[in-house]
Amino acid sequence: MTVEYDIVIIGGGSGGLVVASAAAQLKAKVxxxxxxxxxxxxxxxxxxxSKSLIYAARVAYQVKNAGRFGIHxxxxxxxxxxxxxxxxxxxxxxxxxxxxxxxxxxGVEVIFGCGQFSDRQTFAVNGRQLKARAxxxxxxxxxxxxxxxxxxxxxxxxxxxxxxxxxxxxSLGIIGAGxxxxxxxxxxxxxxxxxxxxxxxxxxxxxxxxxAAEVIEQQFINEGISIIQNTRAEKVELRDGKKCLWAxxxxxxxxxxxxxxxxxxxxxxxxxxxAGVEYDQKGLKVNEKLQTTNPKIYGCGDVIxxxxxTHVASHEAVTVLxxxxxxxxxxxxxxxxxxxxxxxxxxxxVGLTEKEAKERYGEDVYVLKQDFANVDRALAEGVNQGFGKxxxxxxxxxxxxxxxxxxxxxxxxxxxxAMNNNLKVSALSGIHIYPTLSEVNSKxxxxxxxxxxxxxxxxxxxxANFFKFMRSL
Length: 473
Ligand SMILES: Cc1cc2nc3c(=O)[nH]c(=O)nc-3n(C[C@H](O)[C@H](O)[C@H](O)COP(=O)(O)OP(=O)(O)OC[C@H]3O[C@@H](n4cnc5c(N)ncnc54)[C@H](O)[C@@H]3O)c2cc1C
Ligand SMILES: NC(=O)c1ccc[n+]([C@@H]2O[C@H](COP(=O)([O-])OP(=O)(O)OC[C@H]3O[C@@H](n4cnc5c(N)ncnc54)[C@H](O)[C@@H]3O)[C@@H](O)[C@H]2O)c1
Fold this sequence. Notes:
Helix content: 25-40%
Largest sheet: 7 strands, mixed
Bound molecules: flavin-adenine dinucleotide, nicotinamide-adenine-dinucleotide
CATH topology of the largest domain: FAD/NAD(P)-binding domain
Distance between the termini: 90 Å
CATH superfamily of the largest domain: FAD/NAD(P)-binding domain
Shape: globular
Radius of gyration: 25 Å
CATH architecture of the largest domain: 3-Layer(bba) Sandwich
């Protein structure tokens, strides 16, 4: 049967846009169906606005704390709506890159509408029946709203509303201390809001290296952010215009609540049953080739669960593109997936944690940890907290790395490059410019030799004897 399209993509965010633009540039016939506007969470409610807000908040913090460098100013006058204006300006500057005009210019047919599958090979939208050789579901995720009595009635914000507010809440209760809660919590606090994080786990950022997360936690405490640990938000009531939020035996009164307690896949409206596509609460079920349970329908990005990051959505998009347009031979490779949480200090990670490495390789695991307090450039910039930790095997194979400190999200890439190219940790100990923050990597890398030397009694004795002999000549 002849079909109209090579590929129909549903969802025009980080994953869908990569598939659409690359497929069109390869001269495939492409339709992209988007229910709202192109750009997805990353542009409108995620990475772009959050990183812009983080930057404005960092400036406020630096001005407020400039005194320790001998720079004295009047107390910073924070104009919240102008800070939010910066956020909107950055979105506006990036948006043309994701505009329908740009994609149509590349040859993509952009269809705005909310459709659904009518059978295993047809997607119905705006009264049209789209048939294609392959489909890609890239509909992303939305905030999971916990069923907390009174929350709905009292009202709350999620990442979908918070970047549009123009008045600063005096106080903000945040449910969930994952990356969203932590990045936005610190930013709002720095812009003058009293922030309380409610965290169901014993420590914030529970998916990260615990020692690294502890550095962030200590920074939050030093800045005056309240953290209620190991406690779930349980009930909300409206009292005198304020929201009264119960967490365990504690009660906090706040102006606003931000819900950042995880994500749910956008799958419900697509009539996936008709297409033979299975899913659960984490997302679409996909195989290593990113085929759903219908092999002609692929999934990528947040909607398949897993690593929910923009760069992972793009990485998955490439596998989907190759398999869907040509032959389904490519398997997704998740061996080296880096990410960063853009708190201050930043926390970046790639590969295994210490615990995971020890579970897999037992005694053959070396932890190479270098504090930023031993990196002269960090000290020059007033930083004496944080560290770089590289996890290796005895043969130098890099298993993972965890950096917490200034520009950690940039510094991790040297290790990512090494891992991607199967370089040993010694490759990181080459000349690094003095004084730079990236010396944290070279200094950590050198520790493998030092640790192995410290363990090697025979070599130490041989050298001692050698030098004794040389002195006796
Ligand atoms: C506050 C926040 C900060 C973040 N910061 C970072 C960061 O710094 N770095 C990072 O890597 N990641 C970050 N992320 C995660 C990142 O935004 C997501 O992983 C990424 O956007 C996922 O891309 P996607 O293509 O799967 O989904 P999206 O980009 O969300 O795109 C999905 C698209 O599908 C559309 N859609 C949904 N349902 C339908 C339907 N039925 N029919 C048609 N279209 C539909 C949506 O409108 C949307 O345009 C952040 C997320 C949040 C919430
Ligand atoms: N810098 C980045 O790359 C970045 C930034 C923000 C978000 N993201 C992506 O978005 C995803 C979602 O972020 P998130 O922070 O919403 O989710 P998350 O799942 O990472 O963290 C949510 C936290 O909320 C806690 N929680 C759940 N219900 C609770 C309750 N009732 N009371 C108190 N705590 C509760 C959970 O235990 C968890 O620790 C991330 O996993 C990440 O993939 C990435």
